[in-house]
Write a structure and sequence with these properties.
This protein has about 600 residues and is α+β, with helices and mostly antiparallel strands. It has 20 helices and 22 strands. Helices cover about 35% and strands about 15% of the residues. The strands form five sheets. The protein has a five-stranded antiparallel beta sheet. A five-stranded antiparallel beta sheet has the order 3-16-17-12-11. α8 packs parallel to α10 and α8 packs parallel to α11. The longest helix is centred in the middle third of the chain and has 18 residues.
Length: about 600
């Protein structure tokens, strides 16, 4: 037998994590036993399985050197991430999170770019009780992380109209179909008790009951003997899989960043269907030029009746053909680009048994979040800016305290946003003066008093908790933004909506590749600079500079801002300007600035 024949007959190679998933007995692993072993950390195998349960093992990286010097183990702790479809919570659910942040967490809550809560600092000894208590409030963490369909996001704007109700129904149908069906979660954390999640007060609806009972998908699985996970099988998805929904015209949730993006089309009071976008994803690897961020591609138009079926076909193509050998290339975007869009469409059509309708043309008006006081019908909502999504109390700011008081008294529905902010809805029309007074007294800056740049900014948590971070982000961006605001004001751009996003590594959790200016951690204290995304979130940016020190970021961009202020067209956003003039020209602008000397001989830009 030739070497080629041997290679063809050999079993496909799998990554280490694929083996761990396959051997985990549908996400059970040995987690239940490890919870009783008295150790402060989990094994590597259990760490991977725990992600599916919404749990990441982390350690305080600020303490690593000192603990090592003292001959001690790392200070291990867990981060919990809930699954909150559309970011919608009842007042009671919000207050339960707030209580647990003090009881078992580090005293803060973190709103994520997937429209959910993360709780940091939970010790292993308290993990089961924390998850159990969350489930008592009808909140699950199953599906918060791992190689499965992550939290399904949507436009968070509170809307009391027929279109919003129909979109919410469709969102929950997707949640029902694509949630993991394993009983491991209830066995490990709830001692086998079945708990019915409540998705923001919708629990009494007929649809909600269908969601929590677990609509069993009927799509074929290569392992037909697998009755516990008939859709995903023993190894689930090759990598995380993201789905987001929004209304045409409103791209506040960066719908192009998802594996499947769904854009709702309305005719009168009827939601007639969705344009389906496929292949979005933000992650890349700094040292591998073959990895890249990608904006999703318009793929098809589907009616509401076709929605779940077509999404399931797309998902199963990725399930069956996604790269399970090299996780760097395991997202669906790489499968689409490797095999081609025509091949992918043929695969989907073969699974649904008919041809797909072409996507509809899309028109976008805004990608900004829904902040400030707005009235709708006989109610009102307030979108509160949360710096980097971190809910906390500190000197001069009692954010968690004032929100707790407001939620306790007014009992609003809470909507978390994909831009890490928070909306209080269903408020009385006459509540604004009282709420405004309370927020100001607590040191909370209101959106009408804040620069546009700050309202558009986002950072990922990064150091000291994230194990993947190689540079600061959440702790660095607040010090950088005022300098950029001063720079923009210097050139008369203080009212321009220029978005700045920062991450501590190339994985792109704060979606820096969809910002006017993206800073991506490359080494400790150094960042790559990305430019050229469009203001509506439909085009990713590109790397312009590498390894710029944190204290040099403003000067690195200064010459470009000066040129933009002078040369922009009417209404042109900074990212669009960069794309129009091109990087070759921008490098020339920067080089001329480097050559120009100020009076004291220091460079005008670096």
């Amino acid at each position: 037998m030739s070497d080629t024949q041997k290679e063809l007959r050999a079993e496909p190679r799998e990554s280490k994590i694929e083996v761990i998933k396959r051997d985990s007995n549908h996400l059970r692993g040995t987690i239940a036993e490890a919870l009783k072993d008295g150790k402060t950390s989990f094994s590597e195998e259990n760490v991977q399985v725990l992600k599916f349960h919404g749990v990441y093992q982390q350690d305080d990286r600020d303490l690593r050197k000192q603990l090592k010097k003292e001959g001690k183990d790392r200070h291990y702790m867990l981060m919990l991430r809930a699954r909150i479809p559309g970011g919608k919570l009842t007042a009671d659910q919000y207050l339960r999170f707030d209580e647990l942040a003090d009881e078992y967490g580090n005293g803060t809550l973190r709103i994520t770019t997937r429209q959910t809560f993360q709780m940091h600092g939970v010790l292993k000894a308290n993990l089961k009780e924390t998850i159990r208590t969350l489930n008592e409030a009808l909140i699950t963490t199953l599906g918060g992380c791992g190689d499965q369909v992550r939290n399904i996001t949507s436009c968070p704007e509170p809307r009391n109209d027929a279109i919003a109700r129909q979109l919410r129904q469709d969102q929950l149908k997707l949640v029902a179909r694509f949630g993991a069906k394993t009983k491991a979660y209830h066995e490990i954390w709830l001692d086998g008790q079945e708990v019915t999640p409540n998705y923001g007060g919708d629990a009494n609806s007929e649809l909600e009951q269908a969601v929590v009972s677990g609509l069993r998908p009927e799509a074929g699985n290569p392992d037909r003997s697998d009755s516990e996970e008939p859709l995903f099988g023993r190894t689930y998805m090759p990598r995380k899989f993201k789905i987001g929904l929004t209304y045409e015209g409103d791209n506040c949730c960066d719908v192009y960043s998802n594996d499947i993006g769904l854009v709702a089309h309305a005719e009168g009071d009827t939601l007639v269907g969705y344009t389906v976008l496929i292949g979005g994803g933000m992650g890349r690897t700094a040292g591998d030029a073959k990895t890249y961020p990608r904006a999703a591609t318009p793929f098809a138009f589907v009616t509401r009746d076709e929605l779940v079926e077509v999404c399931e076909a797309i998902l199963t193509v990725q399930r069956d053909y996604g790269n399970r050998e090299n996780r760097r290339f395991a997202r669906m975007k790489y499968l689409i680009d490797e095999r081609g869009l025509d091949w992918f469409q043929n695969e989907v059509e073969s699974r649904i048994g008919r041809s797909l309708n072409p996507p509809r043309p899309l028109v976008w008006h805004s990608a900004e979040d829904h902040l400030g006081w707005r009235e709708y019908g006989d109610k009102a909502y307030l979108g509160v800016y949360i710096e980097n999504g971190r809910l906390l109390d500190k000197e001069g700011l009692k954010l968690r305290t004032v929100l707790r008081e407001i939620v306790s008294e007014y009992r609003p529905v809470i909507h978390l946003t994909t831009q890490q902010n928070l909306i209080l809805s269903d408020l009385p029309l006459d509540a604004w003066k009282d709420i405004e007074s309370r927020l100001r007294a607590a040191g909370v800056q209101l959106v009408q008093d804040m620069p546009k740049t700050r309202l558009l900014a986002m950072a990922c948590p990064a150091l000291p908790t994230c194990g993947l971070a190689i540079a600061e982000s959440e702790r660095a961006l607040p010090g950088v933004l005022p300098k950029f605001e001063a720079l923009f004001a210097e050139y008369g751009l203080e009212n321009e909506p220029i978005s700045i996003r920062m991450t501590g590594c190339p994985n792109g959790c704060a979606r820096p590749y969809l910002a006017d200016i993206g800073f991506v951690g490359r080494a400790l204290g150094k960042y790559d600079v990305f430019l050229g995304a469009d203001s509506l979130g439909t085009r990713v940016n590109r790397r312009f500079l590498e390894m710029i020190p944190l204290d040099g970021l403003v000067d690195a961009v200064r010459p470009l801002i000066a040129a933009y202020a002078k040369e922009r067209k009417n209404g042109e956003r900074f990212g669009d300007y960069c794309e129009r003039v091109g990087f070759e020209y921008l490098h020339q602008v920067r080089e001329r600035a480097l050559e120009a000397k100020t009076v004291d001989g220091t460079p005008a830009g670096v």
